[in-house]
Amino acid sequence: MKAFLRLILSGLALSLAFLAPAFDSLAEETAVKFEVIALPAGTDVKTVQQAVASALGGRRWSIQEQSSNKVVGYLKHRSNEAEVTFLFDEKQIEISCWGYRINKAGERQEPELPDGWLGILSRDIKKNLGIVRSKNKQ
User: Fold this and answer.
1) What mean pLDDT comes out for the span 65-70?
2) CA angle at 32 for the pair 130 and 84, rounded to the nearest 5°
3) Residue of 87, 122, 116, 124 lying closest to 99 (CA atoms)
4) DSSP-H helix ranges across the chain
5) How far apart are CA 92 and CA 66, in angstroms?
6) What's the pTM?
């Protein structure tokens, strides 16, 4: 009987080990749309990609993925962890994100969208593309 229970419990533990990454990716797939930035006519997609990558790098986000129409950034800092996705074409940039409040051990607690971080990235991207003027330029 003990051997049977041990077999059942080890099978359950193995199943949970395989399912854990699926739950992580499920959380990532539930990203929340933050903002859509309309781009001026004639904006080049390569320029958008460079503006997004520059904004992420300037704020010390790591770039997890980069393609011709998508850039994904990741940051784990103090009590927050987040992944932001930028999908773009020549007309717009769609910003979506998933985020968590984390404890001192770095474990995820409750979901939390880092609105402040995202607002700063959005502002930096607009500045990089010349959509808004910086305060220093008159």
Assistant:
1) 97
2) 50
3) 116
4) 2-29, 45-58, 115-129
5) 17
6) 0.75
